[in-house]
Structure formats: C-alpha cells, structure tokens
Specification:
single chain; mainly alpha; 2 strands
C-alpha cells in the first residue's frame, strides 16, 4: 500500500470519524450538496430522540414532590443560562463580565444541552442577519414549523460552528476548548442530578425520592421541556402574537412564550433592537431574565447592561396589530 493510500485509509477510519464528531471537528461532516446538507445527522438525532424516550422512565421511578421541585428548579435555572448567557451575552454582547465569569457562564450554558456557546451564538447571529429569508437557519416561513422548531439543528449542514459569525469569541482559547467538549457539562449535570437524588433518598427518606427518580425528572423531563420552550421562540414566536415594531422579519411578541422562557417571548421587541439586555421594553412586559441580570449587576458579577434607546421606543406604532398565523 502506498503512503498516500495508507494516509487516506487512516483518515477515513471509523474511529477517527467518530472522534471528530465527538469533539465537534467540522471534518466529521463533509457535505457534497445543499440536499446533502439538509439530510439528518443521525448521530445527533438518535440521542435527541433517546432523551425524549428517557422521560418514560418516570413510569418506573414514580414521582414525588421533591423530584418535581427539582425538575422545575432545573428548568428555570438552565432557561436563565440560555436566555441571559447564551443569548443576550454570547449572542448579542448585551452586557459585560470579567473573563473568568465569561467562562463560568459558558460552562453553565452547556448544562442545557444545546451545544456550545459559540455554536449557539453563531447560528443565532446568522438568524438575525437573514431573518425569515430563505437563508435563515430556522424560518418557519420557508421550511415549515417542525423544521424551524427542531429539525434544523439536526441536519448535517448545521453541525459545524459558523466561525465567520463569532470571530470576536474565537480569540479566547478557553472558549474554543470548551466548544470541543460542549457535551461534557451536560453529562456531568445529569450525573449531579442522580447524585442529588441519591443523597436526598439517604439523608431525607421522608421525601420519597431517589437517584433514578431525580435523574428522570430533573434531568430528562426538565431538559425536554427546556428544549421545546427554547425552540418555540424560533417557531411559534415567528407565527403567533403581536407586532409593535415594523421589522423586516415576522417576529411577534407573545406573553405566554415570554412567561415560559423568562422573557424571550418579547421577540418583536428583540428583533427591533437585539443588543438590549432587556427584551420586555416596557414595565408591564415581564422579563425575568433581565430582572435577574439586574440582581447580578447589583452584586458586581455583570455590568454595563445595555438599555433600549429612546428613539427605538419612539418607533413603536400607535397601535399593536394582531398578526394571524400564516
């Protein structure tokens, strides 16, 4: 065998391809055409489906008030990590933090199981640059609701990090390293849920919980709810709601989605001025993520929360028109 063919054989080995996929190396996903890019990446689709099926474990573990409380707390905590850290900070630089705090936020965001902060921010910036056009990664107007809700990130073409959109973040080696193992904090979080349940079962047997029970409820069930609540902003918030601002996309404000996602449902507001740390532009628009950021700013963990400029608020129409689903 020639040296060239031997090198090609090594490069094409299943073990090397699996390793590249595991560490998010773009060479793991060669794409030959647009149609090929839209094919499902089954190495990510199967775990995604498995997470949903794991929720059925509740049939065997049962339920307890402690497990439900852990599930709700796990949901709210990680929703904040996504909305405040991944979205408002890494996606839009809506506030400032120290470099150590930046890395802590990146790790905490990874516990939500939505890839790494740079991958998340890169695709989100692509969305804002191409919102509701054919180039939008997840517009419901072009490939339908299910594609915009979940299928888009399971395609082969979405595997790679869109480096051109996150050049500002690529200069941090610690963030690049975390991006390679973005699944590790997620797995460790699941292990932590199991450990918490095991400890509660031993130290407080009156709670009627256990390691497997808390794992199912605080990790699997909580994660699935977290997934679909987050994805609803890509799908439902571009179909259902009201429009205060005449943006060039189909973004809507939706009170129910805002409550579900700690403030992300004020999506038309956000598309009008994405750089703001606050997405509920007015006092009556509850934005829990922003309120928590205010607390973090008060204790010195974050600073420079970017406000909504007065001229943006003046752009609002004199009436808010109900937009019918398309």
């Amino acid at each position: 065998m020639s040296k060239t063919s031997a090198a090609a054989s090594i490069d094409d080995s299943p073990w090397l391809r699996a390793w590249r996929w595991l560490v998010n190396d773009p060479r793991a996903m060669t794409i030959s055409s647009e149609a090929d890019g839209l094919r499902m990446d089954w190495m990510r689709t199967v775990p995604f489906i498995a997470l949903h099926l794991a929720c059925l474990g509740a049939v065997f573990t049962g339920v307890s008030p402690a497990a439900v409380a852990a599930a709700v707390g796990s949901y709210l905590l990680r929703m904040f990590f996504i909305t405040a850290f991944y979205h408002r900070y890494f996606g839009h630089r809506a506030f400032r933090v120290s470099r150590p705090m930046q890395f802590v936020m990146a790790v905490l965001g990874c516990t939500a199981g939505q890839r790494g902060p740079l991958w998340w921010a890169g695709h989100h910036r692509e969305h804002h640059a191409t919102a509701d056009t054919a180039a939008d990664p997840h517009s419901p107007s072009h490939r339908g609701m299910w594609f915009s809700h979940t299928l888009w990130f399971l395609t082969r073409k979405s595997f790679a990090l869109p480096e051109q959109r996150v050049k500002d973040w690529l200069r941090y080696p610690e963030l690049r390293a975390l991006e390679r193992v973005d699944w590790l904090p997620f797995v460790l979080y699941g292990a932590g849920c199991y450990a918490l349940g095991a400890w509660l079962g031993g130290a407080h047997p009156e709670l009627g919980t256990s390691g497997p029970q808390v794992l199912v409820w605080a990790f699997f069930v909580s994660t699935v709810f977290l997934y679909h609540a987050t994805y609803s902003i890509n799908s439902l918030a571009h179909r259902f709601g009201t429009r205060r601002f005449r943006t060039r996309d189909d973004s809507r404000n939706n009170l129910w989605l805002a409550l579900l996602t700690l403030g992300e449902g004020w999506h038309n507001n956000h598309h009008r001025f994405p750089a703001a740390a606050r997405q509920g532009f007015y006092w009556w628009e509850l934005d829990i993520s922003y309120l928590v950021l205010r607390v973090l700013a008060a204790v010195g963990l974050v600073s420079g929360l970017r406000a909504v400029p007065g001229h943006v608020l003046e752009d609002a129409g004199t009436e808010t028109t109900e937009i019918k689903p398309v």
